[in-house]
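Q: Here's a chain of 450 amino acids. Please give me its 3D structure as tokens.
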Amino acid sequence: MALPLSVLIIDDEESLRDSCRQLLGRRGFSVKEAADGPSGLAEVRKHGFDLVLLDLRLPGMDGLEVLKRVKEGSPGSVVIMITGHATVASAVDAMKLGAYDVLPKPFTPGELMAIIGRAAERRRLETENIRLREELKGAASTELVAGPSRRMREVLELVGKVAPSEATVLLTGESGTGKELVARAIHRQSGRADGPFVAVDCGSIVPTLFESELFGHVRGAFTDAVSDKRGKIELANGGTLFLDEIGNIALEGQVKLLRALQEREIVAVGGTQSRPVDVRIVAATNRDLRQAVSAGAFRDDLFYRINVISLNLPPLRERREDLPDFVKHFIGKYSRKCKKGVSGISPEAMAVLQAYAWPGNVRELENVIERAVILAEGGRIGPKDLSSLAVPTAVGSAPAAPRPGATLADVERGHILAALEAHGGNKTQAAASLGISRKTLHLKLKAFGL
């Protein structure tokens, strides 16, 4: 459930502050007060606010100066100027400095709530637009195909039991098994379904930028921080935060994430004001986190916090009876998307799919079917349309022995090059066959100078 909008009233009239506080409090707002500019700015630095009611004339520090500093320190705050000495010139000056509107004194409760309502809607829309843009950057398919396999039915039954709760969920399983789709299913079946679902690929974030991505930053916090940026945790406020490949977070980042989860508040990089957050955490990993804890690579206190409910997703090779349902689903999806008349698959082609090891699991299968739909010349996918599986990975096959003296990095580099060659340079398919995400492959290629 979303937190109430926060309002700060900065006015030297105690009676006005008190009446506004009572009125807004009854309407569900979280309200704080300040009698002058310096104390108001201190509150802004400490907490940050969605809305600020600011008197134009204040003792010691002019209201316009306070407005300027509020917008510098908290540009997302919507500021409404209130004054008994309004002039066209002062209103224009306030609007130039970033004020949302000017409310003349005296005003009625109805007039105050009308302007507050408009300002609150603006704040909500700005936050929603930022969140939607972030979601669209890495939007993934939201379909969760339920095949007939017993293991997948058990997973879906657990999803139905866990989703309505507020419990933190840890999804485990190989890369490509559909952990994000399960996370989205948990979100859709929860009481937060109307709130945002924000996914974070922890494996693709450079450690030095991890804190900025999760907590946001203020302008000037570092060289490239040319403007304020909201972090993924704040964008997920009132909804679900999906931390994919959480096992890849560096220890320093784990400490800061744990603190945010415990205190339920965040501070942007370079900022001083804390903001409360209300998010449900669903995490995922293809690593053995218990082993990582034993090795000192993952904090035990963070592990226990995220491992309240654990769901393991079986690899596709262990639930081959689900293949026909997945294939049918993906053929329909990409036939519509590519405007092709493909409606099925030949028995010979299905036999090829059933014999393949699927190291990249469902993600690799989807890529293969998309390519096959594009290549298919008739109404059905045939074996010749599955050329990307020409060099299959047999189940349990052993990798080639490394040359004498080869380092672990040499072996990994050679394995990546072999996968790229086998898939004709297609990074998406190579990543799927390696059991890693495309972003992780990109980072490894960059690290190896490829």
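Q: Can you summarize the key feature?
A: The first strand starts at residue 6 and ends at 10.
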